[in-house]
Specification:
Elements (H helix, E strand, L loop, with lengths): L1 E6 L6 H17 L4 E3 L25 H13 L2 E10 L10 E8 L5 E6 L5 E3 L4 E3 L12 E5 L5 E6 L8 H9 L4 E3 L6 H19 L2 E4 L16 E4 L5 E5 L4 E6 L2 H10 L9
Helix pairs in contact: 1-2
Amino acid sequence: MKVAALQMVSGTALEGNLRSARDLLEQAAQGGAELAVLPEYFCVMGARDTDKLALQEPFGDGTIQRWLAQAARELGLWIVGGTLPLSVDEPGRRAHQVRNSSLAFAPDGRCVARYDKIHLFRFDSGREQFDEARVLEAGRAPALFELPSRDGHVWRVGLSVCYDLRFPELYRAYAAQGADLLLVPSAFTYTTGQAHWELLLRARAVENLAWVVAPAQGGRHENGRRTWGHSMVVDPWGRVEGLRPEGAGAVLAELDAQRLADCRRQLPALSHRVL
């Protein structure tokens, strides 16, 4: 199955970001991709963290969700919409928080899976400070969906977002449920990405003997922030099969189900777990 990890440098305006994302999705479709994955915050990188509150949508309807469903139908693609802000629809929750949610759409426009980012990033180096919990409410559960590719293989796909990458327990839970493809749409900071991004992606692939597709934000944004980029596709042996260091573009790669089966047969580590 051919996949596309789509790298963006999203700005502060929703309409411009959606136009850029549509261009990349069209490139993916023209390149023969069956699955295209957009990065975290593909729809907005606001001037302030609170800007995403104005764009929040109830799950099941809204400008961004309709746009994703329409793109999936028109392009005949499986699309994972990196993340978008969804309203917290539970009584007693704070109105100034949203969920950072990844949604998967089938080629007929149906939303087939939702994952709310579980682990919320906090970082303070003295020069850079981030605390996602000021605006985001953490999700609580993993989410996995099945994607039948054109060759008949049914891929079991585990969803995650950015900072989740540092928590191997989530991916081990997916592997225990038979996941063979792990998605990690992200907006890693330049500082942490330079130090850990590739290392962590390859580790998650190797320890779970799974393909990893990781689209990212990559460049200098309108709000002044710089993200690390380096969107990539990693095979179950930890080999990088496609990479884009910086700037908007599509990383196209072929996921080989036989390669996956061979790796798991040659090194049956998943069946050797004792904990």
